[in-house]
Amino acid sequence: MSGKPLCELEWFRDNSLYRRVYDVLSVENALPDPCEVLVLETPPPGADESALAGCLADRRTVWFRSQPPPPAVFAHELVHLIEGKEPELEEVYAYNLSSLVVLLAERDITPPANPVRIYRDTTLNTVLEAVRRAYKYPFTSLREYFEFIGVLPEFLNHFEERPATILAITEIISGAKYHTLMVNTAIELLKIIKERQALSKAQ
Fold first, then answer.
1. Nearest to 5, CA basis, from 30, 37, 43, 52
2. Distance between CA 139 and CA 160 in Å, rounded?
3. Does 150 or 49 have the greater pLDDT score?
4. pLDDT of residue 74
5. Cα-Cα-Cα-Cα dihedral sign, residues 63, 64, 70, 76
6. H or E segment at 162?
7. pLDDT for the residue 153
8. Where do the CATH 3.30.2010 domains begin and end in the chain?
9. SS3 of residue 56 by DSSP
C-alpha cells in the first residue's frame, strides 16, 4: 500500500478549510502531526466498493475514494484516528461529529475542548446546563427545551441516562447547521467539560 503523508498533499496544504478541520480535531493534541498520517493512493485490499473513505487507525492511515474528499468525509476519518472513544460508538462519533467539526472550521472557531468529548464526557445534566447558558433561559428540564425547539423528546422517557444523552447531543448537533444557538450549545458543552476538568485537577 503506497501513499503520501497528509502534510505533503496539495489539497490539504493549500486549502485552509481542510487545515482548519484538522486543527479543530487536533485540540488537546488528539491527533498526530499531519506528517505522521499516511493517505493511501488507492483503497486498501478488501475495501467496500461503495465506501467513500476508510481508516486504519492503528497505522495512522486513511484513504479517500476521491481527493480532495468532501470536508465532512475528511472530518469523519480523522475522528476515527482519535483514541479514547467507546468502540461500540465509533461510527456514532464519526458520523455525527463530522458535520459539527466542518461547521466550526468554516466559522474559524477553535473549540475549548476536543469535539469527541461532547459525547464522551457529557451527561444529561451537562447538556441542560449548556442549553441554559447558550439560550440564556432557565429551562427547568431538557424536555422543556426540546419541546421549545419543536422536538418530541420521547427518548427521555424510554432510554437510560447514557443512550438518552447521546440522542440529546445528536439532536443538538443535527440542528447546529441551521441554528446558531445550537452551535453555541455545542460550544458551551465543551466549555463546561473543560471547566470541570480544570476544577478536578485543582482539587
1. 37
2. 21
3. 150
4. 97
5. negative
6. helix 161-176
7. 86
8. 1-108
9. strand
What is the topology classification, in CATH, of domain 1-108?
Zincin-like (3.30.2010)
8-19 burial string, b = 16+ CB within 10 Å, else e? ebeebeeeebbe
What mean pLDDT do residues 92-118 have?
96
Q: How far apart are CA 52 and CA 106, in angstroms?
A: 22
Distance CA 136, CA 145 (A): 12
Report helix, strand and coil shares of the chain as percent, to nearest 5: 60, 5, 30
All three cell numbers of 149, joined, read 425547539
Q: Which residues are CB-neighbours of 175 under 8 A, at least 6 positions away?
A: 149, 182
Q: What number is the average pLDDT over the span 123-147?
A: 97
Q: In terms of C-beta density within 10 A (0-12 exposed, 13-18 middle, 19 or more buried), how is residue 82 classed?
A: buried
Element (H, E) at 184: helix 180-202
**Please, which residues have CB within 8 angstroms of residue 156's CB and are 6 or more apart in sequence?**
142, 143, 146, 164, 168
Judge whether residue 1 has pLDDT over 80. no
The per-residue pLDDT for 25 is 98
Say what angle helices 124-135 and 161-176 make with each other, to 10 degrees.
Answer: 30
pTM of this prediction exceeds 0.70 = yes
Q: Tens digit of pLDDT for each residue in 23-55?
A: 999 999 999 999 999 999 888 877 787 888 999
